Amino acid sequence: MRSLLFALFFFCSISHSQSLLKLTTEINDSIDFYLEIASFNKEDKRYFNKAIIYTEKAIDYAKKNKLHSKLPDCYLVLGGVYYDLGRPDTAIENFIRSINLYKKDVPSANLALAYYSLGKCYLEKNKIDLAEIYFKKSGEIYTALNFLDAIELINIQKGIIQKNRGKYDNAIAIFKSVIQSINNNTFVDTKIEAYYQIGEIENLKHEPSSAISYFEKALILNSKHSKNIQLQKKILKQLSDTYKKDSQYDKSQIYLERYVDIADSLDNFYNNSLSENTFDRIQFDKQLKTIEELDKEKKSQQKTIRFTKLISILSIALISILSLLSLSLYKNNKIRISTNKLLKEKNKELTIEKDRAERANKARSEFLATVSHELRTPLNAINGIAYILLNEKPKATQLNYLKSLEFSGKYLLTFINDILEINRLESDKVLVEHINFDLVDLVENIKISFNEFIIENNINFHLLIDSSIYPYTIGDPTKLSQVLINLVNNAIKFSKNGDVWLIIKKLEERENNTTLSFEVKDNGIGIPKDKQETIFDSFSQGSVEINRTYGGTGLGLSIVKKILEILGSNIHLESDANKGTSLQFDLTFGIGEPLEKKEPITLNKKNASNKKRRILLVEDNKINQMITQKMLEQKGIPSVIIDNGEEAIEHLKTNKYDLVLMDVHLPGINGTEATSEIRKFDTKTPIIALTAISLNENREMLLSFGMNEVITKPFVPEEFYEILFSFLSNTEE
Question: Which of 246, 154, 164 minimizes the C-alpha distance to 193?
Answer without folding.
Answer: 154
